[in-house]
Amino acid sequence: MAIRRLTIGLMSGTSLDGVDGVLADFSSDTPLIGTSSRNFPTDLRRKLLSLCLTGDNEIERIAQIQPQLTQLYADVVKDLLTATGRSSAQIAAIGCHGQTVRHLPHLGYSLQLGNPAQLAELCKIAVVADFRSRDLAAGGEGAPLVPAFHSHQFSSPDQDRIVINIGGMANISCLPIKGDVTGFDTGPGNALMDAWCERHQGKPYDENGSWAASGSVNTELLKSLLADDYFQRPPPKSTGREHFNLPWLEPHLARHAGMADEDVQATLLELTAQSLRDAIDRWGPAGADCYICGGGAYNTQLIRRLQALMPTRSVTTTNALGIDPQWVEAITFAWLTRQYLEGLPGNLPQVTRARGPRILGAFYPA
């Protein structure tokens, strides 16, 4: 029966760069068996980005985009099975987070696109999806969900740790030796930098942060951005593209006319770095080592700034803990799927504000 312990996790995050997939076996000390990734086709990415803000005819546009998105999820599953030499019959279930296009927990909802019934049909594997809604129904924010897995996988009995996940938004998981695990979204991660780079460089992201490194931080603009109320709110809290986006940025820029584009990029990178540092200093364990995952782990300029801003802490990536930064979110949903199948909760109430632990997800049989 060991082969039925295998689960697949699929993740396409707020960075909107593509789909990551992992095959995992959590009965092993080294659960990660295989990985696969596919970028979003340009047209699909454009359509998904357009749905992150209100617009015309959204219901029909969602209905039209879901089959294309779900087929991409299925293609990643096929790639995983081929790469690892497994068959669909050996997989207990696929955990598919779906693509978040709207996250408004204060209004009681968070919307992830993807058709789990279609995915089960395409892959001939059971699917667990809709991970956020039960936590929301229990009064929670439905996010972030990764701290529960970070606690399971990365906690140490003799070292306080902080896991920093930098996707479109950034979040931290505080893993103290003693006391409760906590975690929350700190603010923008890559989303603002990526959007500004795409607008002015025609590229989806600033590779290695090199464009930002060529500019200079505007301290007055940075001060204005950091004055946003979200940064002052105590956790639990979560956020998304609905709040931190280019329309949010533009009124701040209007007060700093004539800034060079690369200086704006440098300031946006500093916003991500300083808002993370401030959140860690204010709400994280003193002296805890930091381990970075997500796409931001590959932005070398961002990593340099985080290391410079936190000189008394060790700042490295989750490679040091045995999992490449790219795959941490995807393996989270493989683990949440295992939790669902075993009837175990997947949320942390102190992180999401839910009324208690809840089993997360909805099941779609093969």
* Quaternary state of the chains: single chain
CATH topology of the largest domain: Nucleotidyltransferase, domain 5
CATH architecture of the largest domain: 2-Layer Sandwich
Strand content: 15-25%
Number of strands: 12
Question: Compute the gyration radius: what is it?
Answer: 20 Å
Q: Mind summarizing the main beta sheet? A: 7 strands, mixed
- Which bin fits the share of residues in helices? 25-40%
Condensed summary:
With 366 residues, this protein is of the alpha/beta class. It is built from 14 helices and twelve strands.
Describe the protein's topology.
Elements lengths: L5 E7 L5 E8 L6 E8 L2 H10 L6 H27 L6 E14 L4 E5 L2 H8 L3 E3 L3 H5 L8 H9 L6 E6 L2 E7 L6 E7 L2 H11 L8 H4 L5 H8 L2 H4 L13 H9 L6 H23 L5 E5 L6 H10 L5 E3 L10 H14 L7 H4 L9 E3 L2
Parallel strand pairs: 1-4, 4-6, 7-10, 10-11
Antiparallel strand pairs: 1-2, 2-3, 4-5, 6-12, 7-8, 8-9
Essential attributes:
globular, 2 domains, seven-stranded mixed sheet, alpha/beta, Nucleotidyltransferase, domain 5, 366 residues
Explain what this protein looks like in three dimensions.
The structure is a single chain. The chain is an alpha/beta fold. The protein has helices at 42-51, 58-84, 116-123, 133-137, 146-154, 191-201, 210-213, 219-226, 229-232, 246-254, 261-283, 300-309, 328-341, 349-352, and strands at 6-12, 18-25, 32-39, 91-104, 109-113, 127-129, 161-166, 169-175, 182-188, 289-293, 315-317, 362-364. The strands form two sheets. Strands 1, 2, 3, 4, 5, 6 and 12 form a seven-stranded mixed beta sheet that branches. It has a five-stranded mixed beta sheet with strand order 9-8-7-10-11, with helices on both faces. Helix 6 packs antiparallel against helix 11. The mean pLDDT is 96.
